[in-house]
């Protein structure tokens, strides 16, 4: 039997059952109320797609259910950070600064002797130990350590770097200039 009420009246009549269904899905009254509100908003925005004479509550429940599962899938991929502590740790450094630093590093590297540059790239940027780099270069590990140390000192001078705070977040630059590489 077709209803003689307007779609708006049918929506208002369906709110208690929408809310009960939303609470059963969410388990939280506030989230359920938000879900019902979003459902009604979507229904009103898409009222032209509703077929008059069909079951309005079923149409609304379908919208609500689809919204719930869409939000559920989205929340599973999100990190809970209500107080913003995690977000405060995230930083996105400007790319242009890294590019400028990389170009400065490249220019400074070109001013090193070939043996210092080779040792520094093997140990600092490629992550080889001094022993591994020594085997590659055909020399003693102490020679590699000495070359890396002299190369880092020379690079720091060429790039006017006195500490980690003097250069940006570029991984390659930090790896080459830091003294935290494997020995």
Question: In CATH's first tier, which class of the largest domain applies?
Answer: Mainly Alpha
Percent of residues in beta strands: under 5%
Cα distance, first to last residue? Answer: 84 Å
Q: Look at the structure and give the mean pLDDT.
A: 81
Helix content: 55-70%
**How many runs of DSSP E, i.e. beta strands?**
0
The CATH architecture assignment of the largest domain turns out to be Orthogonal Bundle
Largest sheet: none
- Helical segment tally? 9
Q: Output the structural class.
A: mainly alpha
Named CATH topology of the largest domain: Arc Repressor Mutant, subunit A
If you compute it from the alpha carbons, what radius of gyration comes out, rounded to the nearest whole angstrom?
Answer: 32 Å
Count of domains: 2
Overall geometry comes to: rod-shaped
Q: Going by CATH, what is the homologous superfamily of the largest domain? A: Winged helix-like DNA-binding domain superfamily/Winged helix DNA-binding domain
Q: What is the string of helix and strand elements?
A: HHHHHHHHH
Low-confidence stretches: none
In short:
It contains 9 helices and no strands.
Q: What is the secondary structure topology, with strand pairs?
A:
Layout: H1 7-26, H2 29-45, H3 56-77, H4 85-89, H5 95-110, H6 114-125, H7 130-137, H8 141-158, H9 171-177
Describe the structure.
The chain folds into 2 domains: 7-79, RNA polymerase sigma factor, region 2, helix turn helix motif (Rna Polymerase Sigma Factor, Chain: A, Orthogonal Bundle), CATH 1.10.1740.10; 95-177, Arc Repressor Mutant, subunit A. The protein has 9 helices and no strands. It has helices at 7-26, 29-45, 56-77, 85-89, 95-110, 114-125, 130-137, 141-158, 171-177.
């Amino acid at each position: 039997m077709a209803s003689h009420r307007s779609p708006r009246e049918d929506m208002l009549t369906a709110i208690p059952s929408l809310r009960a269904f939303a609470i059963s899905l969410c388990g939280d009254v506030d989230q359920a109320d938000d879900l019902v509100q979003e459902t009604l908003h979507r229904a009103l925005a898409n009222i032209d797609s509703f077929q008059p004479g069909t079951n309005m509550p079923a149409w609304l429940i379908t919208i609500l259910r689809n919204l719930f599962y869409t939000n559920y899938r989205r929340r599973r991929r999100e990190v809970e950070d209500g107080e913003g502590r995690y977000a405060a740790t995230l930083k996105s450094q400007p790319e242009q600064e890294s590019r400028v630093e990389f170009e400065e590093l490249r220019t400074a590297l070109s001013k090193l002797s070939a043996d210092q540059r080779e040792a520094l790239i093997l140990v600092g940027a490629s992550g080889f130990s001094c022993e591994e780099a020594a085997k590659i270069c055909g020399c003693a590990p102490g020679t590699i350590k000495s070359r890396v140390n002299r190369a880092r000192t020379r690079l720091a001078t060429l790039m006017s770097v006195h500490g980690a705070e003097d250069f940006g977040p570029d991984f390659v630059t930090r790896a080459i200039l830091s003294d935290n590489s494997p020995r």
